[in-house]
Amino acid sequence: MINQMAGSRSMEFQNAPYIISAASIVGPKEEEGPLGGLFDLAAPEAEFGEDTWEKAESTMQKEALQTAIGKAQLEMCQVRYLFGGDLLAQLIATSFGNGDTEIPLFGLYGACSTCGESLMLAAMTVAGGYADYAAAVTSSHFGSAEKEFRFPLGYGNQRPLSASWTVTGSGAFVLSSRSGRVRVRGATPGRIVDMGVRDNMNMGACMAPAAGDTICRNLEDFHLQPKDYDQIITGDLGYIGQHILFDLMKERGLDISDRHMDCGIEIYDKEKQDTHAGGSGCGCSAVVLASYILPKLESGEWKRVLFVPTGALLSKVSFNEGQTVPGIAHAVILEHV
Amino acid sequence: MINQMAGSRSMEFQNAPYIISAASIVGPKEEEGPLGGLFDLAAPEAEFGEDTWEKAESTMQKEALQTAIGKAQLEMCQVRYLFGGDLLAQLIATSFGNGDTEIPLFGLYGACSTCGESLMLAAMTVAGGYADYAAAVTSSHFGSAEKEFRFPLGYGNQRPLSASWTVTGSGAFVLSSRSGRVRVRGATPGRIVDMGVRDNMNMGACMAPAAGDTICRNLEDFHLQPKDYDQIITGDLGYIGQHILFDLMKERGLDISDRHMDCGIEIYDKEKQDTHAGGSGCGCSAVVLASYILPKLESGEWKRVLFVPTGALLSKVSFNEGQTVPGIAHAVILEHV
């Protein structure tokens, strides 16, 4: 079995695993957006019945994973390994959300690209014969993320127009060699790309170069053109990052503007919801994949999609110590079967 | 190819990958300890020439990875994927230490168990045919960890005797299907174990139940007895955690006391170095593996070792919000060839 492609950094799965189920849990603001009604569960308030934002995020993860496993008609114990992550320091949303499951856990951190990282590793695990069923779960929460990266909500801090709004949501996926309607055909893991951007209120600008790097590398490695994908979907570049991505791709002679979608742009209504540059967070790409992208792949409306969650690699310490904000983007190829 | 063991949570690699090189970089306190002289590089001061603890930690990771890749007589670009992590919020030591390498990065967080998690995933990646060469790197730094989890060093805070001392060090490993003298025969990924311990100054007590859970599961899954391992080596339980582990194992009818070693106990001199419960951090198990354990496996002094890095899943937010401190432990079976 050869899963790696010579001279490339991509992998093509010889036994391409299937995404056999998915679930999305969101807060009220996401339910009020353009994708409202498509999510499995939308809580009436962002606290999810808990007394801290962090516990609320853990509760979302737990609900998302349970729902995805239930949809696959599996018991928790049948899922062999879990790949999970969130944006919080030391992944506490993941640790406290999944402790009860007793599923062996691989904790991951790739900022908002973690949904891509978790899908990739779950797919590698199933395709490599290490598990019949593996799950991937990621989450983000507006309240916990603002506290973690920017300002406590109580400050009522003003947000520049380049800032994105962290999605309150969690998406979970079960992967298996058992046949389904969408499979993970291959993947292109991302490398760190640092163009020297230092603005933590402009994540799109920080991440767009990494998205461009991974997309170009994917096209090269698989000898594809943009037209070979029905959609090329980034995680949370938002309006500004999308603009930069188009420019960077054009410099390389590639125009993806007629088939590019960004989960951060799709999830909120720009005019009505006051979310400025768009949505972000590793829950953003996860819930849009589960609720909107996968159904279109399952129905065959889209045959092949490049799904590219994007992450900005900073912490409040790195930012306050004057470091840049590098980006990373992990791509998975999703195909209708 | 079947890599999973039915009814178990362990995996046995059909094409067991080799650890073809390893490197360890430490600070001055570690060099003054019992393993001094065995490390590849010991800096004369813990700042490593940088102006922040975080940059010092990044520099250690960079040096460790470069040294390991150099020892394997490889160019950086020949290493296909990197699995890396550290203890800091949003993995900034890893992100800023490895940006220049251009190796696609899978960011990992398993607290002090991350060395086990990274070795396991790198081994799965090589054994699954996804890469000819994959690398694993982890680090911790006393200065950055105290700031991250407890008190800034400038406070001169007193430490209870149950507290451990975070190791300033980074270990890196290159795994390959190319023949070497030590191979990764199998692995037992850990699950979250929460016994309700809430003391962030007693990590050994938080992690010992997870170590016991993973070790017992490994023995069951592979139908082994403790005597089948020359050594069972935990990451950083320290003196108190070791005591608890022995008690927990005895409750299950297993005595591992004649072949147990803990990296956190080995790395410092209890009497002379004032490190209380022992060393800790995801650099601890990594540098002891690279400098002390692997040479004994390479020489054949030890034939088979169970290496079990242990992690305590907390952040300062989870702790201050009154959450417990669950543990996790990931085990890899290392064999002399």
Explain what this protein looks like in three dimensions.
Two copies of one chain form a homodimer. Chain A has 337 residues and is of the alpha/beta class. Chain A has eleven helices and 16 strands. Chain A is globular. Chains A and B meet through α3, β5, α4 and α11 of A and α3, β5, α4 and α11 of B.
Q: Note the quaternary state here.
A: homodimer
Q: Report how far the terminal alpha carbons of chain A are from each other.
A: 22 Å
Largest interface: A-B, 58 and 58 residues
What best-fitting shape of chain A do the alpha-carbon axes yield? globular
Structural class of chain A: alpha/beta
Poorly predicted tracts of residues of chain A: none
Strand content of chain A: 15-25%
Major sheet characteristics of chain A: 6 strands, mixed
Number of helices of chain A: 11
Give the integer mean of the pLDDT values of chain A: 96
Helix-strand blueprint:
Two copies of one chain form a homodimer.
Chain A: E1 11-12, E2 18-26, H1 28-31, E3 41-42, H2 53-71, E4 81-85, H3 92-98, E5 105-107, H4 114-127, E6 133-140, H5 142-149, E7 165-166, E8 169-176, E9 182-188, H6 203-221, E10 231-234, H7 238-251, E11 260-262, H8 263-266, H9 270-273, E12 279-280, H10 284-299, E13 304-308, E14 310-312, H11 316-320, E15 327-329, E16 331-336
Parallel strand pairs in A: 2-3, 4-5, 4-6, 7-12, 10-11, 10-13
Antiparallel strand pairs in A: 1-9, 2-8, 6-8, 9-16, 13-16, 14-15
Helix pairs in contact in A: 2-3, 6-7
